[in-house]
Design a protein that fits this description.
By secondary structure, the chain is an alpha/beta fold. It has three domains: 370 residues, Glycosidases (TIM Barrel); 88 residues, Immunoglobulin-like; 114 residues, Trefoil (Acidic Fibroblast Growth Factor, subunit A) (Trefoil), CATH 2.80.10. The strands form nine sheets. The chain has an eight-stranded parallel β-sheet with strand order 8-7-6-5-4-3-2-9. Helix 5 crosses helix 6, helix 7 packs parallel to helix 8 and helix 9 packs parallel to helix 11. The chain is globular.
Length: 621
């Protein structure tokens, strides 16, 4: 349940062009080999660098089962089975997360497909035959072994709401225990059916009332969120349920960063929260994304990006458009990249896997539909019998991650990528998975260096472009620990490298400030700016421990500010080098920052909340 219900009215069902989207041709090579006799790129300074230090562990990549299941329950079972294969099998997206919507009954909701049935009967007993579509695809997700099954609630059943509706209103405080018992009963029931929920999200976008009733929703004030979390956590504990709680699913990073610390700090609350959940409908910049990391560090929990959709018109901000092309594919890939590389989220979950909001043409951009789905179906299926599926590049773009970046993979940031190129890398225990977005309209050269004494071997290369869908293409050339080649214009490429054994050396050199053009220089206070001279005080070594070792010892972000101290391996001495130039303290999630945006020699370097400013951007020289 997206902000979609608030910002857009339901489009009427309309006739569609007939014919399914054809498979696109596979052409071209992923990476061309350098000419014979060329120098080993590992010896050059132009390589993008895979960080020797690990970042966050990835939990899952997934999508939501709302609201399309309420239409697809009417489709041929063979089509339902095809959809399940497209989402959950290794031949399809191979999703590692699926979000099941526990319906609130749909009372007063004006859009039938957005009014999921609940199981609660008037006498307090349950009718488990309800929600046929939701149950069908939850069963498929469990059958295919989707690693994380998440149940989420848009609205409590109407009987427990202040307005007696499934849209708008609040959960009545006196019915909190009724509500959490209901959620726990649903959890127990599906566990008995072989679909055990790994996580429960008890409320969603809690500042959005959805009182226009285009979809389910309810307001949950900040001071009520901790009450619901504690009540549900205690109920689960009493039943010995092995189900974590995620919260608070704020629709924007601003809401998450300002409101979550208020409720999770209430006594007895944090112990019940397994993961922090946020949405990104405010189209956050690097400052807000970095703040996600800082907020999460402050409460000691992993953040998840649990919902986004509906960007368009060439950007990643909210806009009405239906776009099945590589333009939209590259935009979803950029969002995933930034969530993993800047917010340091441990999960990415797209809003809705399927949608009917296809507009006037299923095969081309148009301003009538919405970019809320990965796969689309005909909104007139009930009258014209058309049950064909229409694919978008967003489907294939998500697969460039979900098919390869599996639970337990460990992110390693990549710095020094060429302009217009975004590179993320993931360690899968003896294998490297690298996903590359080339937003440029021309082919772009890339050298990628893995900081290791052990050579890497290219195993696989897969690309999605304007003319390709998960195309198997030529593997990169490799010299030692450096892969090289040319990326196709406007493409998303995933390649897999094998590496037997590890062990690397430190990344050494000076770090130059983007705003000042001057170098990070070790001094008695920890670090300051000075003109780049190549002096020993400007030489830093960054290794697998995450330490920045300079002339005076390890750069340490203590409670009283920066200092150079003996290297001890503490969190205060570990740093992440983000691809956008931020150098981030692992202890606090804050950035190395030139105080007051000063540029003069001797200007003080401090740790400050990441704001996306050029005084917080550094590049290795």
């Amino acid at each position: 349940m997206t902000t979609e219900g608030r910002h857009m009215s339901h489009l009427g069902r309309r006739s569609l062009l007939t014919g399914a989207a054809a498979a696109l041709a596979v052409t071209g090579a992923l990476i061309s080999a350098p000419p014979a006799g060329a120098a080993d790129p590992a010896a050059t300074d132009s390589s993008a660098e895979v960080s020797p230090h690990a970042a966050q562990t990835i939990d899952n990549i997934g999508a939501s089962g709302a609201w399309w299941v309420n239409d697809l329950k009417n489709f041929d079972p063979k089509v339902q089975a095809t959809v399940a294969k497209l989402l959950f099998s290794s031949q399809g997206l191979d999703l590692s997360n699926y979000r099941y919507n526990i319906g609130g009954g749909g009372t007063a909701v004006t859009t039938p497909s957005r009014a999921p049935e609940d199981f609660l009967k008037a006498d307090g007993t349950y009718d488990w035959s309800k929600d046929k579509g939701g149950r069908t695809f939850l069963k498929y997700a469990a059958k295919y072994g989707v690693e994380d099954l998440v149940a989420f609630v848009n609205s409590a059943p109407a009987a427990w709401k202040t307005n007696a509706q499934s849209c708008g209103g609040y959960l009545k405080a006196e019915n909190t225990q009724d509500f959490v018992r209901y959620v726990a009963d649903v959890t127990d029931h599906f566990a008995e059916q072989g679909a055990r929920f790994d996580y429960i999200s008890p409320f969603n976008e809690p500042t959005n009332s959805f009182d226009s009733c285009g979809q389910e929703g309810m307001l949950v004030p900040v001071d009520q969120r901790d009450d619901i979390v504690r009540a549900l956590g205690a109920e689960q504990q009493a039943r010995k349920q092995r189900t974590g709680i995620i919260a608070d699913e704020s629709s924007s990073t601003v809401g998450f960063n300002t409101e979550l610390p208020q409720w999770i700090s209430q006594p007895g609350t944090a112990q019940y929260v397994s993961r922090l959940a946020h949405h990104t409908y405010n189209n956050p910049g690097d400052d807000q994304l970095a703040k996600i990391n800082e907020t999460s560090k402050s409460v000691g929990k992993r953040p998840w990006a649990t919902e986004i959709c509906c960007f368009g018109n060439g950007g990643t901000g909210w806009a009405q458009e239906y776009d099945p092309t590589i333009d939209s594919g590259l935009n979803i890939s950029r969002i995933i990249y930034k969530d993993f590389a800047t917010a340091h989220d441990s999960a990415f979950q797209w809003w809705t896997a399927l949608s009917e909001m296809i507009g006037s043409d299923p095969n081309a951009k148009n301003g009538d539909g919405w970019n809320d789905g990965l796969i689309y179906y005909d909104p007139d299926y009930a009258t014209n019998g058309n049950q064909k599926l229409y694919f978008t590049k967003r489907y294939y773009a998500l697969g460039q991650y979900s098919k390869f970046v599996k639970p337990g993979a460990v992110a390693h940031n990549v710095t020094g990528a060429p302009s217009g190129v975004e590179v993320s890398s993931y360690d899968r225990g003896g294998k490297w998975v690298v996903v590359v977005n080339n937003h440029n309209t021309t082919d772009t050269a890339l050298n990628l260096h893995f900081n290791s004494r052990t050579p890497v071997r290219a195993q696989q290369a897969v690309r999605t472009s304007a003319t390709e869908n998960w195309a198997k293409v030529a593997k990169p050339s490799v010299h030692g620990a450096t892969a090289s080649g040319t990326l196709a214009a406007r493409s998303i490429t995933t390649y897999v490298f094998d590496q037997k054994g590890r062990g690397g050396s430190a990344v050494t050199g000076a770090w130059q400030g983007k705003q000042s053009g001057k170098c990070l220089t070790a001094d008695a206070t920890g670090a300051a700016l000075s003109t780049c001279t190549g002096a020993q005080a400007q030489d830093w070594a960054y290794d697998a421990t995450g330490a920045l070792k300079g002339a005076g010892g390890c750069l340490t972000a203590g409670s009283s500010g920066l200092a150079a101290t003996d290297c001890a391996g503490s969190a205060e001495q570990r740093w992440q080098l983000n691809g956008n130039g931020q150098i981030v303290s692992e202890a606090s999630g804050k950035c190395l920052d030139v105080s007051g945006q000063a540029t003069a020699d001797g200007s003080k370097v401090i740790v400050y909340s990441c704001n996306g400013g050029s005084n917080e951007a550094w590049s290795k020289q």
